[in-house]
Amino acid sequence: MLSARKKTGIQAIATTVLFTGLYFALTIALAPISYLPFQVRVSDVLIVMSAVVGLPAVYGVFFGCILANLFPVGYPANPVDVVAGSLANLIASYSAYKIAYQRSEKLRIVAATLVSTLIVTLIVGSYLPFIILPEVSWIDVLWIGYLGVFPGELVSQMVLGIPTIMTIQKLIHTGQRRT
Hints:
This protein has helices at residues 4-29, 31-34, 50-53, 55-70, 79-100, 106-132, 138-159, 161-178. With 179 residues, the chain is an all-alpha fold.
């Protein structure tokens, strides 16, 4: 029989692997909208799931982003994107975790998704024009970087993320009341 501590550790590892695989699979399956300057990376809905799932989701989206950026569809991997994009997900997801984990108030969830959206937008938007364009101006960073990433992050993290989190929290609370 496994001790409770070992069982919890195994569950955390399994959840991390699940989130890694989900992030990678969603990004690749939706590749036409997941890459390049104007993107809606639907897999980024998993970033805010750390508000419900905790640290395994934080690590899972980090590792999933590494894999997704190592194997992009249609162009070669870029080391800056692999490192900086993955770190953006790690920081954003950890921020969402710290703001809203085990707190079901809608205001905290909205704040967590807004903060994580801004983190990804600022980090990814700051480097993306430099790896896409031969010459870059501050206008390119603004238009292609920030305004190219921000709308997609709003869709994935806020429009999709908030209802997903609220639904999962409701299911968890309903399941806890039954037991």
